[in-house]
Amino acid sequence: MDFGLSEDQRLWQASLSAVLQHVAPLERVRAFAAGTEPVARDVWSALAEAGAAGLLVPERHGGLGLGLLDAALTVEALGGQAAPAPALGVYLASLALASAGRESQQARWLGSLASGQALAGVGLSEAVLGGRDGAGVEVREGRLSGRALFVIDSAAADLLIIADREGGLHLVEADTQGVHASPLTTIDLTRRWGEIVLEGARAEPLGPSDGVVLSRLRDAAWTLLAADMLGASQTLLDKAVAYAKERRQFGRVIGGFQAVKHMCAEMAAALEPCRALVWYAAYAFDALPDEASLAAAHAKAHLSEVSRFVARTATEVHGGIGITDLLGLHFWFKRVGVDRQILGGPESVRDLAARLQGLDDQAA
Amino acid sequence: MDLALSPRYAAFAKEVRAFLLDHRSQWPGPGASRAEIIAWQTQLITAGYAARTIPAAYGGHGAAPDILESRLIAEAFIDTGAPGPLGGQGVSMLVPTLLEVGDEAQKQAWIGPTLRGEILWCQGYSEPGAGSDLASLTTRAYEDGEDFVINGQKIWTSTAHLADMIFCLVRTEPDAPKHDGISYLIFSMKTPGIEVRPLRTMTGHAEFNEVFFTDVRVPRTQVVGGRGAGWRVANTTLKHERGMLGDPHAAEARLAAITKLMREETLGGARLIDNPVLRDRLMRLQGEVLAMKANGLRLLTLNLRGESPGLAGLIVKLQGCELNHQLAALAIDALGELGILYHDSPRLRADGVWQQRYMFDLGLIIGGGTAQIQKNIIAERGLGLPREPKLAAS
Ligand SMILES: Cc1cc2nc3c(=O)[nH]c(=O)nc-3n(C[C@H](O)[C@H](O)[C@H](O)COP(=O)(O)OP(=O)(O)OC[C@H]3O[C@@H](n4cnc5c(N)ncnc54)[C@H](O)[C@@H]3O)c2cc1C
């Protein structure tokens, strides 16, 4: 019985943080956000060199074969730095291939995902939430047609994993004929989201189309998005507390005013249990199959609520400078704003959580 | 990260459950006599499922401390529904305080009978003029021969009307700075000069009292931790009180009860759970309960590893008490018009427990250090923000 990080995991957090501070300082984040690079290659190769790209790739394919908790710790660090890194797509694709891919598919992709050479885009939105604007993907004679929105990390992807309307997953090479990718520009410019149009594109099925792999990927994605919000919120809180200790008004530091102190305490009180919740969801994904989906849903929904509160409160603690581009707090503010909606805002996710437990009216 | 129990602990957990279930016939029920309660406590101590780590010389079981064993015992009581080891302010607050700072004679005299339930205690800290600012208390005790003579008043004293003994803060050095002039005294509630007046709360019950002291004589040997050291001793006790409030197990049990209620009760033919707004509130609270439960697991591991609990510990009272209150609020809202029934009304649901909790739990948000004081503590000790200004002269 041990519910805490291992020595290895703590060392990993420390070395990751060192890499990120070096390769993705705020100036680098700013440059990426202002530019048009589809991916920050320098950031991803530094992370890959440290071992981050292959975390979820089995050892026999050149990865580290670790669990979702290790991936969550990594994504938490990325969120903490608002780092431009296409980790989500790589991790979800690694999981999908490792759990459902054929030997040939694994051999073709897992090694290059682990080395950081290949990048992956993952489109699950329509299958998890339902389509908007007529989006949705269909399979006809083994080929894919339709439109996938809010595809994760699609901008520089070499392979795409796309869910069809029925919940089956497909592996599509990005440069195949009939695949058209275009960007969707969100408030968060530290990561790239896209739209993929498929016109009879060649695809290979990934696992049986019974929806099992899809729900595993959804659970993993929810947990990793929660981890990103955890990291981003912790940074927002840390910055607010540091500012409250340094900014002076009325002859004293503002952190001495109880109104400011209590804003900070409320953020900390809401955020601290979130860390354990994210760990729990990640651990459940690998070790407690019966609880995994519910824990992932709650991690996603609860972190969405807490991080929205932390983002606005941390901004308020800063006063006017809080909303400026100069300070850059907005990178984290926007990051959690996007994490909240991708693959379901808290209301949608809680609705799914109720269904998972048979609490919806259909089950009456 | 591994939530599985090793074979030794899995066997231990089974053993505790089996013991509790085997002794079901001896469980004291709601109307049990004091003798039955004492008999059950004594059995639990002998078996090692109450007072487990308290030295046998003081009436405990005398096992080596093992946090995981303690946790498994607590879970076994919840899972089997067996009446738990005696809690209350004596066992949870006074006993650990005596173990930490009491003298040998005090430990010998009070710990054993308290553990067995032979002595019930109340906590005499708060006064009309000293609540959050406890150190400004003014109940006086002056020395007269071998005794202290106490005059003054306590308030909000839970269970004083039932208690045999009181642990009480009094000012023994009126000229010392306010934190240095306090002593921690223990004495019988039957001592002449004590008057207890019950205070009825909004729940309709008298859960706490006013306690008046007029020339109450207490032997000087009844000071715990040394004369003038009462503030330090009191903080030892408060640390144990906060650990008691905000426990996620209570929230988990409540959540299960509300879920059941919302599946069973109907309005206009539809189950309450099918109201999407109410269901969303339930799911939101379920997420918070899960977060607090996971935080509890994290705290357990931090304790097992001997690491400092930090913020994960400091936030428990604030978050846990608020969560319990929100759960009661949801049950009332889900019941709607039925939710306002109380006392012994026809159509009352669950004996009116949700209204009772909604009101009583607001008291728990205030008692044991108010929510605002908890926020001060989190900000100061957890985040290193400036301390509240102390009054220069008082
Ligand atoms: C159900 C219940 C049981 C209790 N049982 C006992 C018991 O058995 N024994 C015992 O001794 N006491 C007991 N208490 C008393 C309890 O400890 C006090 O009520 C509590 O410490 C608050 O003190 P107060 O009521 O005087 O409120 P006050 O201290 O007057 O507080 C009033 C308001 O001012 C705020 N406030 C005060 N100081 C600050 C500050 N520095 N910063 C920000 N806000 C501040 C408070 O948060 C609160 O909102 C009990 C209370 C309750 C409700």
Describe the structure.
The complex is a heterodimer of chains A (364) and B (394). A 4-stranded mixed β-sheet of chain A has the order 1-4-5-8. Chain A has helices at residues 7-23, 26-34, 41-50, 68-81, 87-100, 103-115, 125-129, 212-246, 258-287, 292-317, 330-341, 346-356; strands at residues 120-123, 136-140, 143-152, 159-163, 169-173, 179-184, 193-202, 204-205, 248-249, 252-253. In chain A, strand 2 (136-140) and strand 3 form a beta hairpin. Chain A has 364 residues and is of the alpha+beta class. Chain A has 3 domains: 7-115, Butyryl-Coa Dehydrogenase, subunit A, domain 1, CATH 1.10.540.10; 120-205, Butyryl-CoA Dehydrogenase, subunit A, domain 2 (Beta Barrel); 212-356, Butyryl-CoA Dehydrogenase, subunit A, domain 3 (Up-down Bundle), CATH 1.20.140. Chain A is 54% helix and 14% strand. Chain A is built from 12 helices and 10 strands. Chain B is an alpha+beta fold and 394 residues long. Chain B has 3 domains: 7-86, no CATH class; 121-228, Butyryl-CoA Dehydrogenase, subunit A, domain 2; 246-382, Butyryl-CoA Dehydrogenase, subunit A, domain 3, CATH 1.20.140. Helix content of chain B is 46%, strand content 15%. Chain B has 12 helices and 10 strands. In chain B, the strands form 3 sheets. A 4-stranded mixed β-sheet of chain B has the order 1-4-5-8. Chain B has a 4-stranded antiparallel β-sheet with strand order 2-3-7-6, with no helix packed on it. In chain B, helix 8 runs antiparallel to helix 10. The model of chain B has no long low-confidence stretch (mean pLDDT 93). Chains A and B meet through helix 8, strand 10, helix 9, helix 10 and helix 12 of A and strand 10, helix 8 and helix 12 of B. The structure holds flavin-adenine dinucleotide (FAD). Residues 122-126, 131-132, 156-158, 208, 363, 366-368, 370, 372-373, 376, 388 of chain B line the site of flavin-adenine dinucleotide.
